[in-house]
């Protein structure tokens, strides 16, 4: 009798044990990181009681139709060209099914994370819950560690928390895209709360997010008022760019039009054509934003420029912060940025920066230029695909997104991929990366430019994650067939099926930028992207003035044969990196300077002729 009841007791305990344990459901690994990204080191385990702000990105409906729907409004040959969608229609079309919402909530509830703690975002895209490390480790069968990263020689450290892999019950997998924070190095380590300080913001700068600009240091202005174009080979000014890119235009529809430039913490400077700020003075702090805004604002004047101060890039899942702001359906945070942690914008006093966003309340600008980026191998494919889909939705809304393609040729910043894995180093870029060119030494604004080979090398190559889009197929196939690069699959994705980048280029050398109280010579695809953004903003202005739509997702258009006269093909220079000469600029599209640099006058005519 005694024995029996003990046995029964044990039996019932073990039954309870099984039911309470996630191991009863068959589990599948949902995401796994192959390696720790360059420069990161595991430092310690996280305390089990630390609270993690968990976010479950639900599978979206119709997402497999995104590319088709995007092409429908973006391809000039489509009858719906320019008929962009409203944010509401987009949110509705891509909202996850009620079944996905219910399944994930039931799962969390069955794991003891009570329903009352769970929040569903307005778009139904995300389920959020604050849970302890202990709870999350059990839920996801994962182990969290703190990782630290020292950034370059700037004595800037950042830390992130991450796990190596995580799993979910098999029946949940089909309902979830991604769970954050997990394997990607984009999550700050809680609790971070002490008095806000500049140095702490600085600490989080730059780890996986690189600002694509380099300075050669302070210089004297060489520009000669009598002949402002004579020194363009030494110092680029807005006048040089106007001459290079056939850019003369008077803006008309400035109230309807908009142009946004993405800034990053720490950029605590108020910028108005090179004004001095007093808190922090160095290129690392101000250079990138000064550059972007000085050129962007000058070239589109009097068009207002919106600065998207994307809060804290490292912690806030990087560009996800920006996406939150622009697109409510993406919003991952309840209240948007944390005022004690994030940037000090808007600066209402200067130059017309609009009120920045919090969560889904900012109407996206028609053109958004970003001069920051990270490396493709540093984030998982699901993470990047989800983000890419969000850029696709913005394209459907008529927004043109421009990204710098990086400054390290075929390599990343101080990093190339282990050849054993066969993976190429692709600077993490999506949609419209802009490469860099230069005016050759002693050449003038009337001579052809080369790929930039001073201080920086234009980022370019082929993706390991994103497939060759239809609009680019002819250009890439022609490049690989007629100019086969002297490399194998060890160096790059030579399958002929991979997305090539950049799409186009603009000057990225010798920009004269007012930073703090002097001038510096700045190099980078960071220079190129806002310049192209300014030109597209002018084209939007002209189209809006005649009652047409903004140009939106430009890729299917710029690759058309009929548009090639709108570009100056770049056929000199290369983008060395990883101990190789990299790729070479050739006639037609190439993975150094894309289709070439813009000829504004001709592009304007071409785009005005479209419906
Ligand atoms: C998580 O905690 C933060 C900070 O206390 C709070 O602002 C947020 O609303 C919480 N989120 C959820 C989903 O409860
Ligand atoms: C540029 O011109 C200067 C002066 O004429 C000359 O000394 C220099 O070698 C030239 N540089 C190149 C790269 O041709
Ligand atoms: C090359 O790109 C294709 C198309 O995106 C992809 O299927 C393949 O996995 C890539 N190869 C490597 C080695 O990453
Ligand atoms: C500049 O653009 C105009 C159209 O506005 C065009 O007629 C002209 O040919 C272009 N100039 C060059 C040098 O391409």
From TrEMBL:
UniProt cross-references to Pfam families, sorted A to Z: Pro-kuma_activ (PF09286)
GO molecular function: metal ion binding; serine-type endopeptidase activity; tripeptidyl-peptidase activity
Highest taxon of the lineage: Eukaryota
SMART domains, sorted: Pro-kuma_activ (SM00944)
Cofactor note: Binds 1 Ca(2+) ion per subunit.
GO CC annotation terms, alphabetical: extracellular region
PROSITE patterns, alphabetized: SEDOLISIN
The protein's name in its UniProt record: Peptidase S53 domain-containing protein
Positions of the catalytic residues: 288 (charge relay system), 292 (charge relay system), 526 (charge relay system)
Residues noted as binding Ca(2+) in the record, renumbered to the chain: 569-570, 588, 590
Subcellular location: Secreted, Extracellular space
Keyword Transferase appears in the UniProt entry: no
Chief location bin: secreted
Cofactor(s) essential for the protein: Ca(2+)
InterPro entries per the UniProt record, alphabetical: Peptidase_S8/S53_dom_sf, S53_propep, Sedolisin_dom, Tripeptidyl-peptidase_I
Record domain Peptidase S53: where: 188-610
Keywords (A to Z) from UniProt: Calcium, Hydrolase, Metal-binding, Protease, Serine protease, Signal, Zymogen
Secretion signal, residue range per the UniProt entry: 1-20
GO biological process assignments: proteolysis
